[in-house]
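One such given next:

>
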Amino acid sequence: MNWSKQISKKNMLVSSVILTIGLLSGCDNDADQPAIENPAVSVFQVKTEEVGQYLEFVARTEPNQSVEIRARVEGELISRSFTEGGIVTKGQELFQIDPDQYSASLAEAEAALKSQRVGAANALRNLERGQELSKTGYISNSDLDKLVTTSSQAEAAVRSAEANLEKANLNLQYSTIHAPFTGSIGRVKFNVGNLVTPQSDSLATLISIDPMYVNFQLEEARYLNYLQMPEDVQQEVNLTLRLPNNQVYTGDGIVNFADTRIDESTGTVAMRAEFSNKNGSLVPGLFVTLMIETEDKESVALVPQVAVQENQQGKFVLVVGDDNKVVARVVQVGRRMNAMWVVESGLEAGEQIIIEGLQKVRPGVEVEPIEKTIDSITGTITELPNQ
C-alpha cells in the first residue's frame, strides 16, 4: 500500500512538470506571434459638384414622322429600288407597279379628249350659224334650242374627257411609288411579282428619326407650375436620356409639346421632348429615362454607388474618422448621376468613405485607409496618381 502511494505521488509530480512546461512553451509561442495589423480599406474623399434641380420621367422614343407606304393602283410589283432597313431620300423611287395598262389608259383618254374637243368645236360652229339664221327667221327657236343643248353637251363631254385624262395620268404616276420624305425604311411586306391593290396591306413603313421624339407624362401640379413659368424660363433646362444599357445620351433636347388637357384617369399631362439624332443612335420604341435638370445649380456632395449600403434604418455609408475608426453614417440620397449618388444630407465634403473592403470591417474597428479615386461615369476604382 505504501509502495502504491509512492508511485501515485511520483505520477502526479511528473504530470505537473509536463503541464508547467507546456504552459511555458505556449507563452513563448504567443510572444513570438506578430501584433494584429489594422485591415486595409480603400476610401474615397467626398467631393461636391454643381447640380441643378432634377426630375426623372419614364419615357418612350417615337419617330417624328411615320407613314405606311401603300399602293394607290392595282397591279404587279415589277421592281423595288431600296435596301430594307436603309435610308431613302425624299422623292426617291421605292416601288414600280407594272405601268403598261395605265400607259394604255392614258393614251385612250388622250384620244377620247381629242375626239370630244372636235365634236365640241363642231357643235359650237353649228350653234353660231343657227344664231345668225335666227336673226333672219330662217330657223325656229326650237331648232336653235337644240343647237344650244348640243353645244352644251359637247362642252360637258370635253370636261369629262379632261377629267378622265387627268385620272389616267394620275394612275400612271401612282404606278411609281416615291418616298414622301427622307427617312429609314423598314421591312418589305410584298416582294416583286406580287399583285397589290389599294386594299392591300402596306408595302413598307417609312419613318423619320432626326429629330427623335420622346413622350412622357407630367403630374398635374408640376404642369400648372410649368404653365406659370415665362416661356424663356421653360426652355432653361438641360435634357438628357438614360438608355436601357445605362448609357447617357446628351444630344440637344428641348420640350416641344404639352397637351391642352389633363388625363382624368391618371392626373397627368402628355408632354413631348425632341432630341437631335444625326448619328441614328436613338431608335423608335425605346423605354428611356428622361432627365430634366435646371440651369440654376447648387453645390451638393457626390458619393460612389458602391459605397452606399442599406438596412432597416435606410441607406448608409461607412465613414473613416480622423482616428481611423469606422463609423456608420445614415444618408439621404437623391438623383443618380452615372456611377454616383447625390447626397442630400448626412455627409460633408472632405470626409472619407469606404469603397473597397466593406466586408472586412464594422463600426468601431480601426482601419488602415488607402485613398483612391473613382471614375464618375463608369465607376472604375483606381489608385491616386501620386501613389
Observations:
- The chain is about 30% helix and 40% strand.
